[in-house]
Amino acid sequence: MNSENVHASLPAKRIGMLTPSSNTVLEPLTAHMLAPLAAEASVHFSRFRVTQIALDAASDDQFALAPILDAAGLLADAKCDVIAWNGTSASWLGFETDARLCAAITERTGIAATSAILSLNALLEARGVRKLGLVTPYTSDVQDRIIANYRARGIETVAEAHSGQRDNFSFAEVTGERIEAMIREVAAKGPDAIAIVCTNMRGPLVAARLERELGLPIFDSVAFTLLGCLQEIGVASDALAPFGSMFGTQAQDACPSTSGA
Fold this sequence. Notes:
Blueprint: H1 3-9, E1 13-20, H2 26-34, E2 41-48, H3 57-61, H4 65-77, E3 82-85, H5 90-93, H6 95-109, E4 112-115, H7 116-127, E5 131-136, H8 140-152, E6 156-162, H9 168-171, H10 176-187, E7 193-196, H11 204-214, E8 218-220, H12 221-233
Parallel strand pairs: 1-2, 1-3, 3-4, 5-6, 5-7, 7-8
């Protein structure tokens, strides 16, 4: 195959994702979900150190701008068309933190930026969700902070389940069976939708299967981050509908942006 043919086979768009250093879930599952769109978009990753999730200064310091912007700069070298923070820290630190981060990424790189939580919030708004079910691996105090932040946004968490962990690597060790049990527990309380908030939980495939079974929207973090990126670069996501209703035509009008915090 000559170089011209190789170039013609490359995807038209490149997605860059900023990844917590201890995350082992989002990269393989994002690549798996994106496979049906391989001719249209590719995904590329850059890491910065995140090892613990807690409400303390050491944990908060992991999300300082400087190392994140350095990692974003490496993605800019790959000429990505969008850069996404594929982590959920804004859910407890405050939604405005992702708005500031995305603005800083764009200022540094000249590339459009989005995040997991901006994507989730746009999706919740588009679907009119006011009663939320929340599933996470986090500790009770982190969970309570997330619930309070959504309450301030006008979304009440009517049911929640969490596994009480703080080591980020350990989140990937929560089994699919445990995630399914948490989803079923929360679904029994009748939320408008369920959000799995953590990009290091093995939730995307479990969520898609249970969504079809239960007839209830279930939004997983790895999936809705990918959705936000596809919307930002103008790639239709309908081919990914087997991975959840969020990827269908209904989702196409809700494009997350830095103003959505």
